[in-house]
Amino acid sequence: MPGKFERCPDEKIGEQLYAMTLDGHCDDECGSVDELGWYGLLGYTGIEGAEHVVVKESTDGFFSYEAFDTDVEAEGVFSEVHYDLLRGEEE
């Protein structure tokens, strides 16, 4: 049976990041799981191997993340996703 974190590079880290999002630790967020997916920016997590991440919860309920070397890289990718979501909502 598929799990919520199976799309994560490391499922245990995915579970930790998900808990952080539920506790309100996102620096920024956009989208909605009811539409095109929800995205969150965690500029610094303190989790080795996932210090700076963009997280996603898809419309089918799966959670995933992409880790970056710096918060600037993570912020850049998040900004692109946010822009793309805004454009998609206008079309």
Commentary on this structure:
Helix content is 35%, strand content 25%. It has a 4-stranded antiparallel β-sheet, sandwiched between helices. The protein starts with 10 loop residues before the first helix and ends with a helix.
The multimeric state of the shown protein is single chain
Largest beta sheet: strand ordering: 1-2-3-4
Q: Which percent range describes the beta-strand content?
A: 25-35%
Distance between the termini: 36 Å
- The tally of beta strands, per DSSP, is 4
Query: The biggest beta sheet, please?
Result: 4 strands, antiparallel
Q: Which runs of at least 5 residues are low in confidence (pLDDT < 50)?
A: none
**SSE string:** HEEEEH
Shape: globular
- Mean pLDDT rating: 92
Number of helices: 2
- Residue share in helix: 25-40%
- Derived from helix and strand composition plus strand pairing, the structural class reads alpha+beta
Calculate Rg over CA atoms: 13 Å
